[in-house]
Amino acid sequence: MAPSPQTIGEFSVLPISIPPVPSFPRNVVHYLYVRRNTPKIPTANDSRSLFLANVPIDSTELHLRALFASLVGAGRFESASFEDERKEAEAVAAALDAAPAQAVRLLAAHGKKRKREDQEAAERAEEEAAARLPSTWTRPLRKSGSTAVVLLADEKSVHQVLKAIAKVHKSKKYPTWGGEGNVVAERVPQLGSIWLKAHNQLSYPDRDQLQAAVDAFSTMFARREREAAEIAKRLRNEPDEDGFVTVTRGGRSAPATRNEAEEAKKKMIEKAEKKKQEMTDFYRFQMRERKKAEQEELVKRFEEDRQKLDAMRQKRGKFVPEA
C-alpha cells in the first residue's frame, strides 16, 4: 500500500485509525484534511482555529477533543462547530425571525440604538430556546465529506497541531478515533438499533411539550410585532440621516416599503439631473459658447483625419502593378 501524502494543496493530511465495530469488525484508516481557517468573512478567532474537511460521519465534539488531545495534549481544544449544525442554526434563526418583513426591517435598523441589558438578552435566549421544537435524534450523523471548524486555545496551538500531523506520517502511529480504548463511546449515545429506536420514540413527543413550544413561538411572534409597531410609531415624525421624514400612502401608519423608498429616490435623482441640465443652458451666451466649442472640436477632428490620410498616401508612394 502506497504511503499517504503529507499535504494536498494547502491541506495537511491526518490519517486516523477507526477501530472495529460489531457491524464492521475491521480496522480501517480514515483521512482527515486540516488547514488554517481562512473564511471569506474574517473573524477575531481565525488565527487560532482550524478548518477540517472529510470528518467521519459519527463525529462529535468529544471525538475531536480526544483526537486533538492525542496530538498536542489536553487543554488546547476549546470547541468545534460542524457544517450541518451551523446550517441548522441559521435555519432555526430564520424560522424564529418569521415576523413580518416590516418588523424585521425596523428592528434591524434600530438594533444599535436600543440598549439591551444582559438580563434581557438572557430572557430572550430562553424564550427562543422554548420556542424550538424538541429534537428527534439522540446523536446526529454527518454527511459524507462534511466539514468542521475547531477553535483552539491560541495561535501557538494551531502551529503545534500542524507540526504534530507531520510527525504522525514519520512515526506511522495514527491516532485512534474515539481515544485509546474508545473511551468516547462511553460518553456519547450509541448508534445502531438503539439509536433508531430512540429516534422512533422521540418522533412522537409529548403533546403538552409540543403545545408549549407552539405557544412560546406565538408569544414571541406577537411581541416582535408589537415592538415593530412601537418603532414605526416613533419614526412617524423622526427625520432620517438625510433629514427626510418617511411618509406612506394612506397616512403615516408605518414607514414606506423598500420598493417605494427606492422608487422615490430614483425620481428625486432624475429630477435633480433634469434641473441641473436646465440650469446649464439657462443663459444664451452659455448656449453660444457650447455650440462654438462643439464646432471647434469637429474641425479639429477633421484636420487630424486629413493629416492621417495624407501621411498614408505619401507612405504608399507611386505603386505600379506588374503587367
UniProtKB/TrEMBL annotation:
GO-annotated biological processes: ribosomal small subunit assembly; rRNA processing
Presence of the UniProt keyword Membrane in the record: no
Keywords per UniProt: Coiled coil
Domain Ribosomal RNA-processing protein 7 C-terminal: 202-321
Gene3D superfamilies the UniProt entry points to: 6.10.250.1770
Signal peptide residues on this chain, from the entry's feature table: none
Domain Rrp7 RRM-like N-terminal: 10-179
InterPro entries in UniProt: RRM_Rrp7, RRP7, RRP7_C
Region (Disordered), start-end ranges: 110-137
Annotated Basic and acidic residues bias: 116-130
Pfam families: RRM_Rrp7 (PF17799), RRP7 (PF12923)
A GO term from the CC aspect: CURI complex
Coiled coil: 258-315
Family: Belongs to the RRP7 family.
Name of this chain's protein: Ribosomal RNA-processing protein 7
Organism, as annotated: Neurospora tetrasperma (strain FGSC 2508 / ATCC MYA-4615 / P0657)
High-level lineage: Eukaryota, Fungi, Dikarya, Ascomycota, Pezizomycotina
